[in-house]
């Protein structure tokens, strides 16, 4: 079984977001980079769990990004990827990125392509769905559980107000969320092994960027909290009803 | 040249997020001098002609029951054919679970630029620029769509539904579904609860509640307000509450009209998920909790005393 896991570099969740160059660029000064949590905790760990059951399985990692992605790729290899491919481009357009992954996916003949449900920087929730359409394979989004029996996958996906269990034959593209697996910490043996695992750098294939970011904005700060005394809850209800018109 | 709004439905009924998408799509059409039309794949018991009141003139329906389950491959082929048949150049859908499954595929299949999770009308003064939340709610990006055909998924609770007088014509669209690529074997719906992303009011609680056995008063307050319940990440991680209730940067991002946070300190990751809420109320015994800086109203005090009193006062107001 061949598994491709898409990983992305994102700022640590505690990062304060600041922009530069007239609010047109994300200011990376002092930012700690991590593997996008959905890619790491759910997509990658699920792939590792499948390999633990089927040692013949191979896990390939793919990321689209410049050389500064390599520390997070090594971390993913330390957790359990077998080899990694880095597409050398710093594009932020989902279609461009998905086209790169689709090109590798087509050539690599993978049974499963796992992505996180979204990245915590651009929040497009787009890569999995685009890759699936580009390689013309079934797509299950927001998967919270994945079990494999021969070539049939049983997946629980999130739908509005509940869950749905579905079955499909591989190959397929799956976007992963909470429930899929539990976060792991790389061990020393994994970290040592990761140093010598193959990390291939590939130049991007031609693809258009269908969107471009014009500018960024920060949310407008609240005017200041209006405190109500703990023994005067009725006043809070009055404010919510008459002033905020929220209830 | 038209705006085509994809209608999402379940159990025979159109979802609330689609009414927002209809209003939003109709407003884009008006802004650009285009027609607004809707597309419904599958069957519903709702009267489709009444969708005219949200501003669409025509509803295309491919009424094959095979479309009543979400199979992305089947949907993509049908939507692509419908876009070609109707000559639509802007495709609008809700950024809910269904929209997240479909919008990227529509974008790739049509090679049409996608803005996923739009929160405002496009600015067409210089290009076609759509605003969306990024960094999980810590910021916004203005994104230009560079292609002639455009796909926009609208973030739930971001656009006000307006209702007019129109009546739409309903037209059968003959689309042959592909054989199913997936088989749905079970559906498990939490009945009666308000879906979190669509809720007008959300009551949320954190570690300050000390344990899952203390959620009764939160649920009681939520029931009184017809609100959805939510929680912070440590609460979901400790399995005090189901993970789908977790709001924050790595959970669900929401934008309700009113967000009531009980016993939540307000870590940056939590704020990212809720800071688009219109009004925020914070109840916390720690006056230094960072959440107070992001709140509109606050009470410093013991949640176990304040929450039941709040429920009681709201009931009094309802009965007044």
Automatic annotation (TrEMBL), chain A:
UniProt key word Electron transport: yes
Domain Electron transfer flavoprotein alpha/beta-subunit N-terminal: 23-211
CDD domains xrefs: ETF_beta (cd01714)
Gene3D superfamilies: HUPs (3.40.50.620)
Pfam families noted in UniProt: ETF
Annotated keywords: Electron transport, Transport
InterPro entries the record matches: ETF_a/b_N, ETF_b, ETF_beta_N, Rossmann-like_a/b/a_fold
Gene Ontology molecular function: any one: electron transfer activity
Family of the protein in this entry: Belongs to the ETF beta-subunit/FixA family.
Protein name according to UniProt: Electron transfer flavoprotein subunit beta
Organism: Limnovirga soli
Lineage start: Bacteria, Pseudomonadati, Bacteroidota, Chitinophagia, Chitinophagales
UniProtKB/TrEMBL annotation, chain B:
Alphabetical list of Pfam families matching this protein: ETF, ETF_alpha
GO terms (BP aspect): fatty acid beta-oxidation using acyl-CoA dehydrogenase
Residues bound to FAD: 207, 232-233, 263-270, 284
Family from the record: Belongs to the ETF alpha-subunit/FixB family.
Protein name: Electron transfer flavoprotein subunit alpha/FixB family protein
Keyword Hydrolase on entry: no
Cofactor info, note text: Binds 1 FAD per dimer.
Electron transfer flavoprotein alpha/beta-subunit N-terminal domain mapped to chain residues: 3-186
Any GO MF annotation of the entry: flavin adenine dinucleotide binding
Keyword Coiled coil included in the entry's annotation: no
InterPro entries from the UniProt entry: DHS-like_NAD/FAD-binding_dom, ETF_a/b_N, ETF_a/FixB, ETF_asu_C, Rossmann-like_a/b/a_fold
Cofactor(s), names only, from the UniProt record: FAD
SMART domains assigned: ETF
Superkingdom: Bacteria
Keywords attached to this entry: Electron transport, FAD, Flavoprotein, Transport
